[in-house]
Amino acid sequence: MADRYLSFTATAPGRFLTRRLGLPQPAALRRWSPEHPSLTGSLLHLTAGTTALDLAPVLARTGLTLDGSADPAAIVLDATGVRDVDTLAEVHAALHPVVRSVATSGRVVVLGSPLDAAADDHHRAAVQQALEGFVRSLGKEIGRGRTVNLVRLTDASAAESTLRFLLSPRSAYISGQMIGVGAEGPEGTVDWALPLAGRTALVTGGARGIGEAVAETLARDGAHVVVLDIPQAEADARRVAERLCGSALALDITAADAGERIAAELPDGIDVLIHNAGITRDRRLVNMPAERWGSVLDVNLASVLRTTDALLAKGALRTGGRIVATASIAGLAGNAGQTNYGASKAGVAGLVRSLAPRALAEHGVTVNAVAPGFIETKMTAAVPLFIREAGRRMNSLAQGGLPVDVAETTAWLAHPASGAVNGQVVRVCGQSLLGA
Ligand code: NAD
Fold first, then answer.
1. pTM for this structure?
2. Which of 26, 330, 418, 425 gives 369 a disulfide partner, CB atoms 3.0 to 4.6 angstroms apart?
3. 341 is an active site residue
4. Strand pairing partners for 371?
């Protein structure tokens, strides 16, 4: 279902009327396309406090110019050196004069230190935590399709894939988020044009919706994609796979031996495992039969646990592998009628945080999750009009996201250069007011 309000506010009378009425003013977001792969314009690099980061070489490779010209497409503020309230004031001093000039659909990325680096200095801990409130608040007021995010890091090269992603049109629907990046940089050379060339990616629930967009995006990045879906959706899975020169696998992911069947189907192993298949069976708890509870927990959580365990135990995920699971802001915020779904998606976040360090240490595999907000799919098109309108507008970008927004986030997490991003649950929600 097209977002007619967004089209209306893109016209001059629409802009005039909605401004007069004090209604939301969503900006048409600029997304990745082969013709426009990067933001265009300059990048302003600012610092607050004394920093030890060597950012310049990484920023020089973002595709943005570093000439300090007016109306930047993006600002990177290095606040890793903020250690007390006085140096925190430098965040205000740096951004106050320039934030208005950031281009429509531009980016503000604030860099902070990992919170554990400030564990025994409560002044530093306070002001590093303060950056989160700052970023979330600026994200809510900046408008015009511009986004504001915080990256906690210690090493610029380990964060290159993350900075490139956040400073590009691929991150159009991510705002108000905190992303932690570890210190281990990528080994060897990185093919930024076709990062997944020669790699195999399995996408569960890939026959339609968000999964289909994920399959397309991973194929764009060079992966051989295996589109897994239930046998009833086999024709759609084949259609997607053929278009992407991949393959299809008809399999109900809740089958007890699903992991073994996948491993048998892909004897050379998997590089990227995307747990996208998911279902809803909404009812308030008082009206929810055990069957509705069980089916949602089985597809959304138990099968993710089972297949992950089986594939890791069999060594089917190659070293350097990536697991990306799908949570939801309903799991982080809770939603009436979705105790089963909310539990399953919060469970995904718990799985990711617990498994990530061990999977990396024992298998060389990262584990992260995407947590979509309101995404324009068949599922959300079926939501009653007023609830749908509320879902679309109740975020800082005042519009729903597209499946491709989740797909681009997944592709960044699946990137060979994203090995330092582990155990993160990244919301793709336009900074939804829910569970903020
Ligand atoms: P969708 O219903 O359009 O697609 C889900 C796909 O998963 C379908 O192709 C379906 O056949 C497949 N699937 C379901 N059960 C399966 C099983 N047992 N085995 C194999 N495949 C199975 O849903 P979507 O909107 O594209 O959502 C994709 C994921 O994103 C889900 O995990 C969903 O919970 C999550 N999500 C979606 C939104 C949104 O706004 N659409 C928001 C938050 C989270």
1. 0.96
2. 425
3. yes
4. 427
